[in-house]
Amino acid sequence: MSKKPFYITTTLPYVNAEPHIGFAMEIIRADVIARYKKLAGHEVFFNTGTDEHGIKIYRKAKEQGMEPQAYVDGLAEKYKMLYPALGLAVNEPGINFNFIRTTDAHHVKAAQEFWKIVDKNGYIYKKNYSIKYCVGCELEKTESELVDGRCPIHPLMELEIIQEENYFFKFSAFQEKLLELYEKNPQFVIPDFRFNEIKAFVGRGLEDFSISRLATKMPWGIPVPGDENQVMYVWFDALVDYISAIGWPDKESSFRKWWLESGGVVQYCGKDNLRQQSAMWQAMLMAANLPSSQTIVINGFITGEGGLKMSKSLGNTVDPLEIIKGYGTDALRYFVIRELSPFEDSPFSMAMFEQAYNAGLANGIGNLTSRVMKMASDNLKGVSVLAGPLPADYMAAIERYDLKAAADIIWSKIAVLDSLIQKEEPFKKVKEESTKAHALEIIEKLVIGLAEVTILLEPILPESAKVIWNCIKENKVPEKALFMRK
Asked: Which residues pair with 126 in a beta bridge?
């Protein structure tokens, strides 16, 4: 029997700067879901990539005296290099990992075909307009969205005034259809407070938005079909990657499998993408007569000093590769999954990271593995362990995308095993003839418990889980500590 397909995607990070921890958080979470779905018996398509058009990139390239294509080529490679370092399932059997660039020839063709269909269906028109525009968001801003005349997400950036003739998308035509979509799909946006936000936004009425730019002012974009004087607005182009990645419009069987048979795509994104992913993109799909996404999962921000969002535009980001160099891949994955809120904003500092590392990893799963496998290798010839069904509470937590809750379940099991060691002291009792048999039973129970924990760890800490499984299988102590105390 063939496995049911499951399709998950991140947003495509905008390559106007180096990769940062905010995107690492998003893609690690998506990777955990992809690995869990594989563990639960699905065949998985896992999409990510790079968003490479738009005015920010055009200006950055010009600042550095480079052609835009050469500029994005260099940064796209840096993102590709990041993925193995983050422990992503790049070459995992059963997971189809895909990296798409919006400058790929297939994507360009798909974006233009999508435009033609939406235009043919009567949802694109041309007009003169004047707007306030945030280059950081690559979005126009209404007065109600501004705080002291500035974008609240990019408060240090001056808004720009755009006055020109562009093509527009008839977003206003989709208010009722979007509200109907939300009504029929009560889990369409997760968490519920973000869902309430977008329902309120759509309920207030929608304004048509610009989907092109004059090529004379901003030439770095996909040409509008039939109009060489205009290029596509970066958001209109980039959102199409979710379907171009799975072969639309040319590979019908691939699109049917991953978009229709799977029930639609699960999209991870930050809260500043709420409108684009859960309203604009869904309206665009409707305009092209395509089914909607399945679920939009909204992350909070990682904040730095002063509570400001970490962002490339503000220049206050943390390099995930530097953390990995000092602590290892699974340490970063652990912090992202267990220590950061799955949906709210979360602060980050290296002091917080190190404290969590020592408590949860060095003194937690690392210490438990060493103690249990030392007792097992000294006193047992090995323990036969069989993978049972995944615990219902663990599965429920991941199915609702509360990865922190899933991790807390794992670490509660680790705490139970630690308590068993403290209470029974099998390392002492095994030395006495009168208590040896009971101690051996306890040690075997500990190995089985460690194996159960390891199964649950596989999606979250894949490297460590592999090491622990090998130790259990070969009945040996890890050759070196899983996590050295810092």
From this structure: 167
